[in-house]
# Entry
Amino acid sequence: MSPSFWLALAGTIAALCTTLAFVPQIVKIWKQGGRDLSYGMLGLYLTGVVLWFLYGVMLGASAVIFANAAATLLVGTALGLKRWRESRPARASRRERIAVDMDEVLADSLGRHLEAYNGVFDAGLTRADLDGRSLEAAAPAERREAVRELILQPGFFRDLELIPGSREVLRELAERYEVFIASAAMEVPTSFAAKYAWLREHFPFISPSHIVFCGDKRVLDVDYLVDDTPRHFAGFRGTPILFSAPHNRGEGRYLRAEGWPEVRRLLLGETPPGPTRRELQPEIDLGL
# Structure
């Protein structure tokens, strides 16, 4: 065979390879999105194949014309598909997510803490006496270390009372939302086993994969966070809902729920509780 045949064959194979190279990319963009592809790279590649197409037209080189016309179509498709996938609403493909704190939202840990404190110190301290403070802050200075140690006792978190309405409303929320239970358990590392056992007993409809023990709740990728501790809202990118407790009575920066009936109204009622888009969150964070 003549050298011209092999030259034409090599050129044809090269044209097929470079032209069809974008077919797998288009399939990947369709299935997974194209965040790993650069607009700059796609734009430059598209410019190059368009110029090669024009070069082929001027030379009358049919192989160059057809190969680069096909490449232009494929690269343009990849670029347009990437743009379309990225312009779709970020959360359209899943239900909105809610994270719910455990202590003082689902479980009456304060009640147990007060009971233990009054028993040890023969006191009669009540929730009303806290007046916007935690039990540790309300206790005399010489007792504060002992107050802290009360929650470190084995089994402290195992048989807490349920906050009224928590189980019923959370079950309803789980029908509409993806629900996570998120506890800052790193504050009491010895509580992991007891908290997990308590949650599995009282909330068996929440999958273990949706029980999160963490420290900093900024890691939560959810739309709403229901929590009694305002500091957990610092840097949170969704909509915070402050669950009323004696220690947060003076907090006025966040949407507040006085109890589980109020949580139900906010998240299952006809009127949404407020903006859920993450781009609005900086307005919330300015007050921190």
About this structure: Residues 62-87 form the longest helix (26 residues). The longest strand covers residues 178-183. Strands lie at 97-100, 178-183, 211-213, 224-227, 239-243, 255-257. Residues 275-288 have pLDDT under 50 and may be disordered.
